[in-house]
Amino acid sequence: MLKMIAGPMEQFQVHPVSWLPRFELGGVDLSFTNASLWMMIAVIGVTAFLVIGMARAALVPGRLQSMAELTYEFIANTVRQNAGEEGMKFFPLIFTLFMFVLFCNLFGLLPYSFTPTSHIIVTFALALMVFLVVILVGLIRHGFHFFSLFVPGGVPGWLLPVIVPIEVISFLSRPISLSVRLFANMLAGHTMLKVFAMFVVSLGTAGGILSAGAVLPMLGIVAVTALEFLVAGLQAYVFAVLTSIYLNDAIHLHEH
After folding, report:
1. Annotated domain spans of the chain
2. What are phi and psi of 103, to 5 degrees?
3. How far apart are CA 72 and CA 246, in angstroms?
4. Could you please report the per-residue DSSP string of 102-130?
5. Rounded to whole angstroms, how far apart are CA atoms 175 and 22?
6. pTM for this model (two decimals)
C-alpha cells in the first residue's frame, strides 16, 4: 500500500526537534523547535561564511573571500545610497539582517529543511525590531520634533486633519508590509515547489518517472527552483533596502 503523500502545507509545520528532550514551563511548551534549529543553522552558516572567507585575507582574493567582500560592499553601497553616510552607523544591523534573511531563505530550499522566513511570526519579529529602532533613532536624534514626520511640508493647514492620520497609518503599517512581503513570497514559492513535486510523483507513479506526463512538471520544478533562488536573494535585498529607507527617514527627517 502506497504511503500518503504529504500535503503542500505540511512543510511549514513547527514542531519540537525529535532528538532533543521536551521542555515545559507552567504548562507552556518551550521545546526547541525545527524553526529555532534552522534559524540557528542560518546563524552558524553566516558566521562560517564570513569567518572562513576572511580568515586568510589575500591581496588576490579567492572565491570565498571575493563572495564575502562583494556581499559586504554591496550592502554598504546600498546603505550609502538610501541612508547616506550617516546611515553607515547602522550598517552592522542592516548587514546582519540581510545575511540572516538570505541564509534562512537559501537553506529553506534544501530538501527536508525548514524555512523560518515562511512564518509570519519570524518576519514580523524582524520587521518590528526595525520599526522600534527607527522610532528610537528618530526620538534620540530629533526629540518630539520626530513626530513632524507625519506633517508633510507645504500642506495647507486645513488638509492636516486628513493628511496626518493617513501618514500615521502609513507609518504604522511599515512593519506589517515589511513582514508580509517576505513571508508571502517564501510561503508561495515553497508551496508551488511542493505542488509541482506532487505532480511529478503522481504522474511518475502512473507511467514512470520519465513518462511524458511527468517530464513537464519536472521541468517546472527546475524552473521554479531557479526562480526561488532569485527570490531568496531579492527578498533579502528588499528587506535591507527598506530598512535603510526607514532609517533615512528617522535620521534626516524632512531633509531628503
Report:
1. 26-252
2. -70, -35
3. 20
4. HHHHHHTTSTT---GGGSHHHHHHHHHHH
5. 33
6. 0.87
Alpha carbons 57 and 67: distance in angstroms, whole number: 12
Residue 256 amino acid letter: H
How many Å apart are CA 219 and CA 80, to the nearest integer?
A: 41
Kindly calculate the radius of gyration of the chain based on its CA atoms and give it in whole angstroms.
23
The C-alpha cell that represents 36 in the structure block: 529555532
| Cell digits of residue 3 | 504511503
Give strand ranges (E) for the chain.
24-25, 28-29
Nearest to residue 134, comparing CAs of 40, 18, 248, 10?
248
Grid cell 538570505 in the structure block, residue: 102
Contacts of 109 (CB under 8 A, 6+ apart): 115, 225, 228, 229, 232
Nearest by Cα to 100 from 232, 229, 230: 232
| Per-residue pLDDT reduced to its tens digit, 67-104 | 999 999 999 999 999 998 999 999 999 999 999 999 99
Q: Looking at this protein, which amino acid is placed at residue 64?
A: L
Name residues whose C-beta falls within 8 Å of residue 243's C-beta, 6 or more positions apart in sequence. Answer: 93, 94, 97, 130, 178
Task: Write the burial class of residue 185 (CB in 10 Å: 0-12 exposed, 13-18 middle, 19+ buried).
Answer: buried
pLDDT tens digits, 26-73: 777 778 888 999 999 999 999 999 999 888 777 677 788 899 999 999
Q: Which residues pair with 33 in a beta bridge?
A: 16
Cβ partners under 8 Å of residue 177, min gap 6: none
- What cell numbers appear for 111 in the block? 530538501
| Residue 180 to residue 119: CA distance in whole angstroms | 9
Rounded CA-CA distance 231/234 in Å is 5
Residue with cell 509570519: 120
